[in-house]
Amino acid sequence: MTPAEVAYRAVRAIQARAERSGIARERNVPAPDLAALPNPWIKANAQVDAKTYVDAAERIAHGWIDVFALRNVNLGQPPRWNRDPKTGIEAPLAFGKLLDYRNPDVVGDIKYLWEPNRHLHLVTLAQGYALSGKKAYFDTIAEHLDSWFLACPYGYGPNWSSALEAGLRLINWSATWQLLGPEILEKESAFRGRWLDSIYQHAQFIRGWFSLHSSANNHLIGEAAGLFIAALTWPCWPAAKGWRETAKAILEREALVQNAPDGVNREQAVAYQQFVLDFQLLCLLAGKANGQWFSADYESRLESMLDYLASIMDAGGNVPMFGDADDGFAVRLAPQEGFCPYKSLLATGALLFRRGDFRQKARMLDDKTRWLFGASADAEFEALDASATRLPIRQTFPEGGYFVLGCGFDTPAEIRVVADAGPLGYRSIAAHGHADALSFSLSAGGLEFLIDPGTYAYHTQERWRNYFRGTSAHNTVRLDALDQSVPGGNFMWLSKARAGCSLWLSSPEKDSFEGWHDGYMRLDDPVKHRRLIELDKRARRVLVEDTLEMGEEHDVELFFHCHEDCSVDAIEGGYLIARAGTTLRLLLPQVENAASSLHRGSVAPLLGWVSRAFDSRRPAPTIAWRARLANRAVLRTEMVIAP
User: Fold this and answer.
1) Pick the CATH number of 396-561+587-642 from 1.10.10.10, 3.30.365.10, 2.70.98.70, 2.60.120.40
2) pLDDT, mean of each 10-residue run, the chain (643 residues)
3) Domain residue extents for the chain
4) If DSSP codes are grouped into helix, strand and coil, which group holds residue 251?
């Protein structure tokens, strides 16, 4: 941290202690004026299958909910809001701003504790109520909220320790409030009053506790989004105008600061691209519904972010899992089963920006987009002409550091390679980046073959956390069993590899990328790593050439992480990787005394895993090539893709 940030955090700690002594004064909420009726940003006339939502609401009403890897969790009646459902640890009702929520001995796994408290499930109950009129769903919402108000008094406990969590609750409360419709204004006045009191307290909490300095990443955007949507949904206090103006200014600024002009979110994590884009699109739509317009620069940056997602998405709808992922959503408006957040964003972008090419990538309209655009969504989506609006695929994202090599894009003959030569992450701590410089993913015909294995863990399970964000979990080179960048905690790095692209050429016959990184220049014998990736489109051959400039001997490893559905068999000089009738013949560098091995679900060494969802992992084949080399070394790997 910089000296300025150290001073800032010291002042915040003093501020928190001062607030603790005066918290009673903050509980006083002015009377709301409910005369102003804002326009909803959720459309209750969405054309969806009612049974899906009623079934989901029925399950929640009976006390069952999924929390990450836990299925059919019973949170209790009423729910135990301050208990981590994974470990059973009950967090203390200490003053939230001073509570160490990173300490698992105190709060358990904070991700598991916070997730039910984001109240995404209340939106599902409200959808079930809007579609069926069944009062039991309304009553369950009221019961859950009233129990939450009692269990989580303003300012106390783990649910008052993060402004982002407060912002997410406000977004989901806004969607719930809108879907309940006139019922919430006409009846249950005592419950409505308790809810409005908490809404005001949430907004004031965020207004005075924004994430700043090294923490001013996706958290700040989420906090501003929650405050902005609250100001539009409940403009019933004089303070709401100030909330709206403050939040809108932050959103306008951070949309341009945190997202590069080429559309890549600077966290260098695809899941956070989705998270941030979701916040920004919801605010744009809520603003449009209520006459609060964002700038052309803001809208243009959002469209560029969608362009990036469309460009790295293969013909099967797969997106590489670069960087961290924690399954976070701003709001849940569609059933979880089969929901693809990236396709959903592209469907929303297709309607918002009238982009037929986004429609083609999304393939079909999803329910979340239907809830955002209403009864006309399907007709508008079908009316978009992909042939008239299709743009050439973008292959270079120089600020974000991603480059797409390929041929036959969006056809069954597609080959798509996404190479990474970008920064480690955002700001000084690079919290959500992985040590993956010069790694790449490869898919053929819409099937993933070489993958980024994902994230798996955050606050707990340090060994797994370090593995999944370490160099050996990526398709790149590792030296002396050391990561390219040195971790300094779960969300911090002590040293950060710099990377860049030194060559990009694309023609009908060949795509060529060359990149470099300096992560191993810190060694006593500094090593510079350069990687050339060439795709011969006619031969359907990918060449990877790694050059290591070094003076002394080093242990060199090459890793190739395969999709979990791939079969991998040893052949002369390498391996044959097969999946669904397509093969990839991988020929490894031919170096004296080199050896290769295949790992699947190994814990010693830790290799051969993929995580498709937070806190969930499964075995997947990983090929490791190892040799001890000295001086300048050039390693050639060849891959040939055949149906």
Assistant:
1) 2.70.98.70
2) 74 79 71 90 94 97 94 91 97 96 95 97 97 96 97 97 98 97 77 96 96 91 98 97 98 98 98 98 98 98 97 97 95 91 98 95 97 97 83 88 97 97 95 97 98 94 96 98 94 95 98 98 97 98 98 97 98 98 97 96 97 97 97 97 92
3) 3-389, 396-561+587-642
4) helix
